[in-house]
From TrEMBL:
Function field: Accessory subunit of the mitochondrial membrane respiratory chain NADH dehydrogenase (Complex I), that is believed not to be involved in catalysis. Complex I functions in the transfer of electrons from NADH to the respiratory chain. The immediate electron acceptor for the enzyme is believed to be ubiquinone.
Phylogenetic lineage: Eukaryota, Fungi, Dikarya, Ascomycota, Pezizomycotina
Organism field: Neoarthrinium moseri
Entry membrane topology: Single-pass membrane protein
Protein location: Mitochondrion inner membrane
Similarity comment text for this entry: Belongs to the complex I NDUFA1 subunit family.
Name assigned to this protein: NADH dehydrogenase [ubiquinone] 1 alpha subcomplex subunit 1
Amino acid sequence: MPVPFEALIPYGIILVMFGATGAGLSKIKNMQNGGKRARRSLDQWDRQMMDRDRRLTGFLRGQSDNPLAPAGYELNNPWRVEKRMS
């Protein structure tokens, strides 16, 4: 007994919607990372280097080959200072 093709239309719609959602999320993540693939398994060193790159270039995944830091970098301290109790 064959299956009527009308019964497969909802499955096709669901498949297209999941595909469009996955492709859209992948594209947005790609755009947020500056055209690079998303990072996985970040440890403390990677986070520290990403923070340094953000402070140097203004972008989380940006990297610079300029040997000199931009103006104002010396005032951009990454250390988080706790508030003193008085």
